[in-house]
Amino acid sequence: MTIWMRCFTGLQEVQKEQSDKLQDMKQFLAFIKKEFVHVIRDRRTLLILFGMPIMQILIFGFALSNEIKNSKIIIVDKADDVASRELISKIDASKYFEVSNERISESEIEPAFQKGKLKIVMVIPAQFNLDLHHSGVSQIQLIADASDPNTANLLVNYVSAIVKDYQSEISVPGIIPYRILPETRMLYNPQLKSAHNFVPGVMALVLMLVCVMMTAITIVREKETGTMEVLLVSPLRPWLVMVAKAVPYLVLSWVNVTTILILSVTVLNLPFNGSLLLLFAESTLFIITCLTLGIFISIMTNSQQVAMLISLMGMLLPTLLFSGFMFPLENMPEVLQWISNIIPARWYYVIVKDIMIKGLGFASLYKETLALVVITLFFFIISIKTFKQRLA
Fold first, then answer.
1. Which residue of 23, 61, 190, 335 is 20 to 30 Å from 320, comparing CA positions?
2. What is the pLDDT of residue 281?
């Protein structure tokens, strides 16, 4: 009889535990539903969530332009003669380029572009000097990464100008001038459409601002109105309350990503060469990173104005300056390049461009993905610890 009583008691305890878990789940879903209702009823919030990305994707598409000061160039010198060495020396002396000592073969050029190791390559054919002095005409090949069309176009123009100067220097007056004809090949974007560059940048910018700012404001608003204390004394654990506040913005950010992709493909005729599933998975990781940043800001602030100011100034400028979206990172001092490593938008910008434009898979993006995971875990752990300290 005692054994049966123990079994019966144990069964009751298991049922009670399962009932408690079910009740917690219902409360968690109720909090998520509350947040959805609150967002949908707030017209200003809906305008920020859906109006801003649509306006930015359209305005930036026709107004954005880039410029570059210098870049790394790799030269495949098949000739290795006097003329080729002189031309290489002239390019190296230019303030626009730094000739890399790295040696690659023609078959290694495209894999190097896919890895993001370079932006332009010059191929000098065999017998370059012989062709130039005997027939008066020789060719070189310029291969550029046109996923950033403005940079690629400028780099090709810079090289062409240097080649033209060298051509003028070696020409003898009164004799038919030598001609070096550059053959240009633009990888990934032969038509040099600007959408290939700004769409990934706008995606990073929109998700960063929307997720960080809206999450920070919605939690701080609960503090100001005094309802946060009510939520924290509910049976739901405090960290689950925070997660429940963030879930609606995760879902709505998926809508933003979908909207931007549809506009990019249909309105701007941007090709999509990679995996849609991989892009959404990486976008989800980036959204979670931004939501974690928003939660961190909300914990550290006590007013909506301060949270909005930090979100805008602390996220907008770093995203524009250090993501590589508007300004090439290689032009910046090394200190600023190191700072850019902690900006989530930098890694997401590269991920989106590599998936959409270059059609690369996860094997080529694991470093950028790992960087986002590390940033997310860092701010999540700091947020949890700070939140517990404030509750204590």
1. 190
2. 94
